Amino acid sequence: MDRQPPESRVQRRRLRACHECDWVSALPPLRSGEKASCPRCSHVLVKRHRYPAQRSMALAIAALIALIVAISFPFVSFSVSGVGNRIELSQTATTLIAFHQPVVAIIVIMTIAVLPTLYLLSVIWLQLGLLHGKPLAYSRDIARSLAHLTPWMMADVFIIGALVSLIKIAGMAQIELGISFWGFCIFAVLLLMTIQSIDADWMWFSLEGEPLAPEGTQTGATAASQRLTGCPTCGLVNSLTPGHKSRCIRCHEKLHSRLPYSLQRTWALLGAATIMYIPANVYPIMTTTSLGHSGSSTIIGGVVELIQMGSWPVATVIFVASIIVPVGKLLALSWLCTVVRGNSQPNTISRTRLYRITEFIGRWSMVDVFVVAILVALIRAGSLMSITPGPAALAFGSVVVLTMLAAMTFDPRLIWDAPTKAASTSNNSHSGSH
Hints:
Blueprint: E1 15-17, E2 24-26, E3 35-37, E4 44-47, H1 52-72, E5 74-80, E6 83-88, H2 91-98, H3 102-131, H4 139-149, H5 155-169, E7 174-177, H6 179-197, H7 200-208, E8 228-230, E9 237-239, E10 246-247, E11 254-255, H8 262-282, E12 286-290, E13 293-297, H9 299-308, H10 312-339, H11 348-361, H12 367-378, E14 380-381, E15 385-389, H13 392-409, H14 419-426
Antiparallel strand pairs: 1-2, 3-4, 5-6, 5-7, 8-9, 10-11, 12-13, 12-15, 14-15
Helix pairs in contact: 1-3, 1-6, 2-3, 2-12, 3-4, 5-12, 8-10, 8-13, 9-10, 10-11, 10-13
């Protein structure tokens, strides 16, 4: 089963409706390493891997071992004037609780350890069943959860935050990296490789087969025009019944011709993110105590300090991640929400690319939150040197989460719709969105 792609096991056309432009296409036969893209917007529909179950399972097991190492040993230590501190990875979250920042602590531990662990265990459970030719219990529900977990795993972002933190204090104290630090670096790489190794098309075909597309489905047209929609999770083309709640016949995911109230929800989340962005920049993100003297710094203040220290590369990373990316994402999504209402379908490709960029870069703004978490846990030497979190940490973390949710609630298929359809869909009046 692991060696046979779906094309070799079914002698008929397999159809897909693009998640970004709604174009219905027939998948071509694919060999290992090949991918099929939408002919209309170039969105990747399917990417084929060689030995997908074996590859994913091996990478997931290796990633879990690396995470166990990262949790079990010291992460990093510092010393200054004979006084120092050593922390473990988990303390980057637990220390925040002591400073009355439980929400930020939950965000940190969930994104760097808990959700990745659940993801890796899910991959092992799924592929173990498929390798034995008989899916294990709850495989369908677990497989459905994989795509929902992926955006919220931020081990790679945490590594960048750790490097920024170490560079910020390298001139003030002696830093020593522990086994955990290198273990976590390996874990972050293996986690990314595991995510990339998942062949969702093969996995769903092996789990549940592939029911026939609705009779009369035509390629070279939109799914909505045929009262159809593509499942956002398993990709299967399904028919929609007007006025009824629909679910995918293969994976049981909820189906909508267009995401209900897409524009309204996106505007609401953007508004909330904009409001939270004000205290995120006005209030201090952390307070530093050195030799009995305390000083608070805002996000932009931290960038200025790094420039004064001569750390231009680090200052650039923080400025881009904490200022350019959030503001750019707010502006980009606001502009997309505005133009789809009067959409005459010019520049649809460039608008879709803009959406892809905003969806991809949003998570990287979490760098500043991770920097605060690491520094607060590590720099604890009383009046000699210590760092405490400021109220801006929670506000900025909220901005990141809200902008990520805004990108998820925006339906890129609206970019390709005609003006009247885009307007009516955004009001939830299109069939299948009730």
